[in-house]
Amino acid sequence: MEPIRKIAVNTGGGDAPGLNAVIQAVTFAAARLGWEVYGVREGYSGLLDPQNYPDGGLMRLTPERVRNISHLGGTILGTVNKGNPFKVTESLQGGMTVAKDRSDEVVAAFRKHGLDALVAVGGDGSLTIANMLNKKGIRLVGVPKTIDNDLSATALTFGFQTAVDFATECIDRLHSTAESHQRVIVVEVMGRYAGWIALQAGVAGRADAILIPEVPYDIHIIARHLQDVGASGKAYAIVVVAEGAKPSGGDVMVKAREAGRQERLGGIGERIAGELESLTGKDARAVVLGHLLRGGSPVAIDRMLGLTFGAAAVDALRTGKDGIMVALQPPNIAHVPLEDAVKQTKLVPVDGYGVLTAKALNICFGD
Ligand code: F6P
C-alpha cells in the first residue's frame, strides 16, 4: 500500500451534532502523523464543482483552524442530502430531470489533488456511496453519523443523545402548559423508520403514550388509555410520536417525494392530535420538533463519540485498513466492512428493555 501523506474528510447527509468533533479529531490525529488534511465542501460537491467555492472546494484543515470546533453544532464543511455522485440530478429543458453518474469525476478529482485516502462521515446513504467509491479505488474509512441511531453495526451514533436530551427538555416544558389547559399534546420527533428518539425521550419525558414505527398503533387503544389516565386523576396527556409511526394496517405519512433523495416523513403528529381530539373530547395540540433536534451544541457524550470516531478513523488508515467503518461496540471501537455497515437498519426491539421499561411505567404504545 502507498504511504499516506494527504487525506480528505467529508460530511454527507443530514447534519448531526458531533460532526465538527470528528473533523477536529481527524485533523489533529493526522497532523501528528505528518499528514496534510483537507475538508471536501458539501459532501462530494467540492470535488465535482470546485468552481462554486472560493477555496476551490477543498478547505485546508490544520489543528489551528479546528482547535475550537468540537462543541459546535452543524459541520464547518457543509453537507448535502442530495449529493450522490452516482446519481446527480440534472435538469433538462421542459422541466424534465435525468440522473447522471459523475462518480468517475470524483475519483479523477481525488487523484488530481493528490489525495491518498478519505474519511467519509455519514449515515446509511452516505456510507453506501462511500462503499461504491471505495470499490472504484478510493482508499476510505467511514464514520457513522445520524441522530436517528439506526445503524446496526454501531451501538451508538453521535447526535442521537443530543437529540434525545433536547426532545426531553421540550417534553418537560410541555407538561405544564398541557396541565394548565387540560390538553392532550402530541409531540412529533424525527427518527425516520426507527423509534429510538421517540422511545428514549418519551420515557425520560414521562409521556403517557409513545408511538414508534416498530409497533403499529391502534388509535382507539391510545384514546382509551388516555381516558383511563384521565379517570385516575391526571387531566392532561403527553403523546410522543416518531415521524415514522404508522397505524396497524396503514402506512407512514410522507410529506414530500423528490428525485434523488429519500422520502420526507412528517405530519403524523397533527393527524394523531386530530383523531385523539375527536375520540377523547379533549382539546389537543401537535408540536413538531423536527430540525430543532439536529441543531445546537453536541452534548458531552456526542462530542466524545465524534472525537473518538475521528481519531479511530485516522488510526485505521495508519494501520492499513481500507473499506471499513469505525463502530462503537463497547468497550471497543470495531472495524466493520462498509458492505456490512449499511446492510441493516437498527430498529427498536419490541421486546427489548426500552419498551419493557416504558410498559412498566404504564406508557401505552397503542398495541
Ligand atoms: O436522518 C436524519 C433525519 O434528521 C431524519 O430523522 C429525518 O427524517 C431526515 O433526516 C430529515 O432530513 P431533511 O434534512 O431532508 O429534512
What's the layout of helices and strands?
Layout: E1 6-11, H1 19-32, E2 36-40, H2 45-48, E3 58-61, H3 63-66, E4 88-91, E5 97-100, H4 103-112, E6 117-122, H5 124-135, E7 140-144, H6 160-181, E8 184-189, H7 196-204, E9 209-211, H8 219-231, E10 237-242, E11 254-256, E12 264-265, H9 268-280, E13 284-288, H10 300-318, E14 324-329, E15 332-337, H11 338-341, H12 353-360
The structure holds 6-O-phosphono-beta-D-fructofuranose.
6-O-phosphono-beta-D-fructofuranose (F6P) binds next to strand 12.
String of helices and strands: EHEHEHEEHEHEHEHEHEEEHEHEEHH
CATH topology of the largest domain: Rossmann fold
- How far the N terminus sits from the C terminus, by CA atoms, comes to 55 Å
Strand arrangement in the largest pleated sheet: 3-2-1-6-7-14-15
Averaged pLDDT: 96
By DSSP, the count of extended strands is: 15
Beta-strand residue fraction: 15-25%
Overall SS class: alpha/beta
Look at the structure and give the CATH class of the largest domain: Alpha Beta
Bound molecules: 6-O-phosphono-beta-D-fructofuranose
Low-confidence spans: pLDDT under 50, at least 5 residues?
Answer: none
Query: What is the radius of gyration computed over CA atoms, rounded to a whole number of angstroms?
Result: 22 Å
Figure out the total of helices: 12
Largest sheet: 7 strands, mixed
Per the principal axes of the C-alpha atoms, what is the gross shape?
A: elongated
Portion of residues within helices: 25-40%
CATH architecture of the largest domain: 3-Layer(aba) Sandwich
